[in-house]
Design brief:
Distance between the termini: 105 Å
Radius of gyration: 28 Å
Keywords: Signal
Helix content: 10-25%
Number of helices: 4
Number of domains: 2
Order of helices and strands: EEEEEEHHEHEHEEEEEEEEEEE
Protein name: Secreted protein
Number of strands: 19
């Protein structure tokens, strides 16, 4: 026997959950698999990401993303929530959606399936005289954990004046989704001397692609009535010269974006190698730069139906900083000198 599919526009009701003070309905269905790599805007989705190591692909969701840090850069693999509930249609809209999308299926349904369908229609119709709305499951398809998470959620009826389900979207949910969607410029390392360096010669290091306009990024995640904005600021970056302390002197941390070399400039950021790299793998030292973007943020509005409850506010300092690294090969040669003896 085929499984009974009861779906809304762009939404699949999966599994079952019991929520105190609210009615819940169980159904079965299917949803798209989480993407393996870069994503395009999914049907029914509120946003997607094309950057590297980005972990947001919202589906069956009203959440929308915007800001200078949304797309076009690189994420760091931060994992936002896997699934949650969002406010959905009222009783009439909900019932009409299901009747519309189930119409063709019913033409070939068995008597048992039709009986199951009629039972559900009767349950949903019982809400038509009530004021309230259904809260619908939404999920982050970029997270493999969403497969199991969304199977635990189904549509939940919440009468007007009652609190949303415990899994209802909050300021924290939006803040973590915005953090997951954050991308920053991939560090482009500048070196002087470029190409190769020499023993005891200071190798200046800076970030080629970090003018002031690129050192602050923000992402806003919003639904009607509420938004959370996450801001990432780059002020410093760290250097790992790829050599033990016996072979190098370096500045572990530099002010961003560092200073490109100019004649006579003070050596303030970089590495001074004390031994040649001839005995290293590929005959180079691998210098790594780590950019750490300090995260802050703020929220506006309130969760739907949440009033002035504790979920209205979120401490954005709980979010992790954005950390992105890049590496470059530094071949270090030794200057050979020839001493001539004259009679």
């Amino acid at each position: 026997m085929r499984r009974l599919l009861i779906v809304a526009a762009g939404a699949a009701l999966l599994g079952a959950v019991t929520v105190p003070g609210a009615a819940s309905l169980a159904a079965s269905g299917s949803a798209p698999a989480a993407p393996q790599a870069a994503a395009t805007q999914p049907p029914g989705g509120g946003g997607s990401q094309n950057g590297k190591d980005v972990t947001v692909w919202v589906h069956d969701s009203q959440v929308r993303f915007s800001g200078s840090g949304y797309k076009g850069g690189r994420g760091d693999g931060y994992r936002p929530p896997a699934c949650w509930h969002e406010p959905g249609p009222d009783a009439r809209e909900y019932l009409d959606q299901r009747k519309r999308f189930q119409k063709d299926w019913l033409d070939g349904a068995t008597p048992e399936e039709r009986a199951e369908w009629e039972k559900r229609v009767e349950e949903w119709s019982g809400k038509l005289d009530e004021k309230g709305r259904w809260w619908m499951p939404a999920f982050n398809a970029a997270d493999r954990a969403s497969d199991a998470c969304r199977e635990s959620l189904t549509a939940v009826w919440v009468p007007d004046g009652q609190a949303p389900p415990p899994t209802g979207i909050t300021m924290e949910t939006l803040a973590r989704l915005a953090r997951g969607a954050m991308t920053v410029p991939d560090p482009q390392i500048g070196l002087s001397p470029g190409g190769k360096s020499f023993v005891n010669l200071p190798t200046h290091v800076w970030l080629e692609n970090m003018p002031a306009s690129e050192r602050r990024k923000s992402v806003t995640a919003s639904i009607p009535g509420m938004s959370a904005t996450v801001v990432a600021n780059l002020t410093k970056f760290k250097i790992d010269p790829g050599a033990p302390a016996t072979r190098v002197r370096h500045t572990p941390e530099c002010e961003a974006p560092g200073q490109p070399y100019t004649r006579g400039a003070e050596f303030t950021c970089g590495a001074q190698y004390l031994q040649a790299s001839i005995d290293q793998p590929d005959k180079v030292y691998v210098l790594t730069v780590t950019t750490e973007w300090e995260v802050s943020g703020y929220g506006e509005g309130a969760p739907p139906g949440g009033g002035d409850g504790p979920d209205r506010f979120f401490d954005f300092s709980q979010l992790e900083n954005v950390v992105v690294t890049a590496s470059i090969d530094v071949p270090v040669h030794e200057v050979q000198s020839t001493v001539e003896r004259r009679p």
